[in-house]
């Protein structure tokens, strides 16, 4: 089985590619802007006919699109998160219409949630910022493409190798620099929001199952923990793993932690994950505590 992974050097893509390499008989082809890529592809600028030639050369049985932008201005976000999937679908229809497409979306597409009510895939989508809006546009393109496709709407990934662009990775970097003495101070932003944190290794396993599952799949599947956790719980949990004995100061007006361009002003977010269990037999295998331990210790990173 030939599987093309777009964005294979990114945080999610690296874990997905590593997981897929363990499949018996699978050949994993990396595509992206990295010089190590088997196929050079920039979804922000590639033309459909050029990408179709690349796909014809790769001859994939499945394509997993992990490419995406989480930061930058609205134009940058739209080029990668909305235009990219549109070009990919057009090229697949021309060059590899039988290949399964697994596209990684985001729970940010839903926007603000109602406390105590996990959102299902049929819930209204009301993204709170450009990131969620552009990811939603990408999902719409994939879901209406007519291809054998599925969008995995991923919650807040955490675990080994988390980049500094997101709160878990940024917090780990701050803790490494803060020292461990009682005089150390960690100054963060508002930590009152609730998020659905999912281990990146569980996301990779969901992608593997989506690639190999028989028959057509639902257009969208939520991939999360199914539990809304206060961001404060993540912060104190990781501080404990780090052996931090100093003081954590929370300031609602500070940008040092808490909210991000991806979440905007979303106070509560949680995904219902029953559909993924039914369609893929997928359940999260790692707890948040295990994800934080792996993030701090570096276990399980590609």
TrEMBL record:
SUPFAM superfamilies: NAD(P)-binding Rossmann-fold domains (SSF51735). Pfam families: Epimerase. InterPro entries: Epimerase_deHydtase, NAD(P)-bd_dom_sf. Residues 3-224 form the NAD-dependent epimerase/dehydratase domain. Coiled coil: none annotated. Belongs to the NAD(P)-dependent epimerase/dehydratase family. This is NAD-dependent epimerase/dehydratase family protein. The lineage of its organism: Bacteria, Bacillati, Actinomycetota, Actinomycetes, Kitasatosporales.
């Amino acid at each position: 089985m030939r599987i093309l992974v777009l964005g294979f050097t990114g945080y999610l893509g690296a874990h997905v590619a590593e997981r897929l390499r363990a499949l018996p008989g699978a050949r994993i082809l990396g595509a992206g802007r990295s010089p190590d890529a088997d196929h050079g592809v920039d979804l922000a600028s590639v033309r459909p006919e050029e990408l179709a030639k690349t796909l014809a050369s790769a001859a994939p049985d499945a394509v997993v699109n992990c490419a995406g932008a989480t930061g930058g201005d609205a134009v940058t976000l739209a080029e990668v998160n909305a235009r990219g999937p549109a070009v990919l679908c057009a090229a697949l229809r021309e060059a590899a219409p039988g290949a399964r497409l697994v596209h990684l979306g985001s729970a940010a597409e839903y926007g603000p949630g109602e406390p105590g009510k996990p959102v299902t895939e049929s819930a209204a989508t009301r993204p709170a910022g450009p990131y969620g809006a552009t990811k939603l546009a990408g999902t719409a393109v994939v879901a209406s493409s007519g291809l054998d496709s599925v969008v995995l709407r991923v919650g807040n990934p955490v675990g080994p190798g988390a980049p500094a662009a997101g709160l878990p990775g940024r917090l780990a970097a701050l803790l490494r620099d803060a020292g461990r003495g009682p005089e150390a101070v960690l100054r963060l932003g508002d930590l009152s929001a609730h998020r659905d944190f999912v281990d990146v290794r569980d996301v990779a396993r969901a992608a593997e199952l989506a690639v190999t599952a028989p028959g057509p799949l639902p257009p969208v599947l939520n991939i999360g923990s199914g539990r809304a956790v206060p961001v404060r719980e993540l912060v104190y949990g990781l501080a404990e793993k780090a052996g931090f004995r100093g003081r954590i100061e929370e300031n609602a007006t500070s940008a040092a932690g808490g909210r991000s361009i991806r979440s905007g002003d979303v106070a509560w977010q949680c995904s219902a994950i029953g559909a993924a269990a039914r369609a893929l037999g997928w359940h999260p295998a790692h707890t948040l505590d295990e994800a934080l331990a792996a993030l701090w210790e570096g276990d399980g990173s590609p």
